[in-house]
Design a protein that fits this description.
This protein is mainly alpha-helical and 67 residues long. The chain is 75% helix and 0% strand. It has three helices and no strands.
């Protein structure tokens, strides 16, 4: 799997978790989580930020289910 395909899959999963966010809003937020301007972020850095966000939202959901 290429970095781009992994990134797109991660963005698709984030989109499912945040259905009210517009696509531009989602991409902008992921760039912000990487502490990088949208126009400056590369695919690898965005992928890392997206994966971290996916892990964190999964952790939060698991904590709520366990309580």
């Amino acid at each position: 799997m290429t970095v781009r395909s992994e990134l797109l899959a991660s963005l698709a999963e984030l989109s499912r978790r945040y259905p009210d966010w517009r696509l531009g809003q989602l991409v902008s937020n992921v760039a912000g989580w990487a502490d990088t301007d949208l126009w400056e972020i590369d695919d690898e850095k965005m992928l890392v930020a997206a994966k971290v966000a996916l892990e964190e939202t999964l952790d939060v959901r698991n904590k709520h289910v366990g309580t």
